[in-house]
Write the C-alpha cells for this entry.
Amino acid sequence: MIQFDNFELDNGLKVIVHQDNSTPMAVVNVLYNVGAKDEDPHKTGFAHLFEHLMFGGSIHIPIYDEPLQRAGGENNAYTTNDLTNYYCQIPAENIETAFWLESDRMLSLAFSEKSLEVQRKVVCEEFKEHYINKPYGDAWHKMRTLAYTNHPYRWMTIGASLEHVEQAKMQDVKEFFFKFYRPNNAILVVTGNVTTEQVKQLAEKWFGPISAGDAYERNLPMEPVQQKSRFQDVRADVPLDMLMMTWHMGGRLDENYHATDLMTDVIGGGATSRLYEQLIKVKQIFSSIDCYHFGTIDPGLVVIEGKLVKGITMSVAEKAVLDEIELIKNTMMPTHEVQKVINKTESLICFEDMSIMNRAHSLAYYELLGDAGLMNQELEKYQKVTPELIQQTAQQIFQDTNRNTLYYYSKS
Amino acid sequence: MALDRQMAPVIKDAIDFDIKLKPYQHFVLDNQVEVYTYEGGAEPVMLMDMVFFAGNSYEDKNWVAAATNFLLKNGTTKKSAFEINEAFEFYGAHLSRNCYNETATIALHCLTKYFKEVIPVVSELISEANFPEKELQIYQQNLIQRLSLNLKKSDFIANRFIDEYLFGIDHPYGKYAMQEDYKNVTLADLTAFYDTYYKHGKCIIFMAGKFPSDMQELLNKHIGQLPLNKKVIADVTHPIVSAAQKQYSVVNDASSVQGSIRIARHFPNRHHPDFAPTQVLNNIFGGFFGSRLMRNIREDKGYTYGIHSYIQNHVQQCAWMISTDAGKDVCKPTIEEVYKEMKILREELVSEDELKLVKNYVLGGLLGDLDGPFQIIARWKSYILNDLTDAYFYNTIDVVKSIQPEQLKSLAEQYLKPEDFYELVVY
C-alpha cells in the first residue's frame, strides 16, 4: 500500500506527495500529458525531439543539468506514445533546486536555435543507432503502419522518418511548448524524504506563478475495427527469418486489461510459457519467441514475435503459433497456470515498488489515468482474473480478422 | 517579494554530507560457506545471490564456464527444465545466473513469504544438475543463431575486438566464443566443470531485503549441508598478451550508417592508489552526462546519441575505455575530439568550479546508489570479492572530497596519453 497526499494548484497543476523517511533522497517527477500520439502526422517524432530540447536551457537558467549536478542530483526523461515524463533524483536536503529547475522550464524554454540544431542531429543519430543500423530495426515501423490505419499509434515515438526530425522548425517548437507544457496539462509527483507541507510550500512558490494554458482537448482519430487479416512481406539483410503478429486489444482502462496482461504472460512470458515450452523446447521451431502487449492508454496491440530456427519455413512457424492460440481459445486454462502468472505479477509489483523513483513514476502514471489511488488496486484486480475470463478475452482478441502479420525474411 | 528565478536556491554541498556504508551481518553455515546479509526495505521481497568461483578463468576450453552456468538450471536428477522453471515461477520467484571472469552467480529474487518454497530447488540445482543432452543441443543451436544476429551489429563486434586487443584472445578478459566454440562443448565438459566448481566448489552468499524469521535455519538445512568449500580452488593466472598494433578500422557492413568507436588503455585495479582519484578524472572526462566528452561531442556537435568513458571493473587488471556510436561521416572528427579533450586535461588545470560540480555530483550519486538493501549488499559484494573493506569506501570519499586540480592534471599526464590507447572503429 503506497500512501500519498494530493492537491491541486490554482493553475491546474496536480501535485502528489509520497513520504518515505527511510531514504536520504527525494524524487521530483513531472509528467506532461503529451506523447507521440498527439503529433501532427506530418511532423512526427516531435514529442521525443522536444524532450531533448527540454535540457537545452530554460528562460532563466542557461543549462538545466549543471545546477542539478552541483546539488548532487541526477535526471532523465522518456517519451512514449502516450506521455512525456521527466524525473530527477536528488539528496532530499537540496530538493528546492529541482523545483527551481523544473518550474523554470515549465514557465518557458530559452528556445535556443543552437540547441534545436544540435538536438536534431543527436536524435537523428539515435534514430540511426536504434532503427537503421540494427537488424530488424524497421520491423516496428512496418508493423505499426500495418496494424493502425487511422490512430496515431501508427508511428513510433522516434518518428515516422528521419526527414520529419530533420525538418523541425523553431516555430513548431514554440507552438508545441505552449500547447502542451502548461501546468494544467502536467502532474508533479514528489517522493522520498519530504513532507506534504514542505512540498505544498515549494510547489506554490515555484509552480504557483506559472499561468495555465488553454485546456488541451484530445480528439484523436480512433482506429476502426479491423475487418480482415492483413499481411506484409519484408526481405532484408538479416541472418534469420522473423515472424511478427499482432492483434488489437482494449485500452489501459478496459475491463479486460488485467486478463489480457495475464493471458500474454501465460502464452509467451518467460521459460514456463506455452510458446517457449512448446515451440522452442519441444518442437524447436523458434530460437526465441515472446508474447507481450503494448499496455498503452488507447487500444493497443497483443504481440507475438519470434525468430525461426534455420530450415523451418514461415508457414510451419505460423501454423505452430496459431495452433497454440487455438488451444488457449478452446480449452480452459488450468487454475494453477493462472495462479502462477498472478503470483509472478504480485512479485513484479513488489519489486517495482522498492524504489522511490518507481513509486513516483507509478503515481504519476495512475494519476494520468484518472486517479493515483488506482496504483493500490492493481494487485486485487489481477487476483480477480479467472480462467474463464482469460478464455473469453482470448476468444475476443484472437480472431483472424483482427490479426496483422509481418513475415520478415532473411535475404541470405 | 517577487520570485528571483535567476538565483539558484541555496544548496548543501554533497561534500558536506556524512555518507555512511551501513554494515552487513555475517554468519557461517555448517559447511563453512560464508553468508553476508543486509536486512531492510519496506517491501516483502528478498535477494539471495550465490557467488561461485566458476568464472571463465577456470575453464580449459572456451565457453564451458558460461554454458555450465546457464544449463545448470535445465535439468536435475529429479526435475526437467520445465519443472525447475515452474518451481520458481509458480511462486513468482526469479532465478537468474551470470558468468563473469573470476566468478559466476546464481541469484534468487523472491517474495519473502515464498523463500522456504524455493530454497530447496536452488539447493537441488547446485547438487543434482544433470545436463540433459537435448538441453545442450537446443542451447547450442539457439546461441549459434543469436551469434549470427549479433555479428551483424557493429557495437557487438567492437566490444569483442577491443577486449581482445587489450588482453589477448586467450585471456579470460579478452576471449570470446565463435560458432565452433559453441559446437565443441560436450556434456562431459559441463559435468566435469560443474562437479569441480559448483557441486564441490567455493561459494559465498550475499542476501538482502526482508528475511523470513527462520532464514538462517532454512539456509543451513538446504545449503549448509552441501559439499561446498571442501577443496581449495587452485589460483589461476593468465598472462596478458596485448596486441602490438594500436589502431584498427573494420568494415563489418558496408551499408552501415554509423561506426562503433572504442578507444581504450590498460589501467591498474582497485588496489592501486591512482584508482580512486582517476575515477574523479574519468567523471570530468566522460563519466556522466555533464562530462567534457558529452558536452563537446553530443551537446555541442551532435555527432552521437551518447559518448561515455569508464574504467572496466575487473579484478586483476582494468581498462579505461571510451565508447560511442557516431555517424559514419563524423567518426574521424569524433576521435579527434576525444584526443583533444585528453590534451586539454593534460595541459590545463580543471577549474575549481567544474571540480566542485563533479565532486557534488559523484557524492550525491553515491548517496543515491546506497539507497535500498539490494544496493547496499551489492556494494559490499563488490568489496568483499575484491578483497577490500569499508576503509576503501571511506578512503574513496576522502579522495573525492580533497582532490585538487593539480593532481588531476598529473593523472591526466600519466594516463591520458594517446599513444597508450588502442583505437578501433567498426562500421
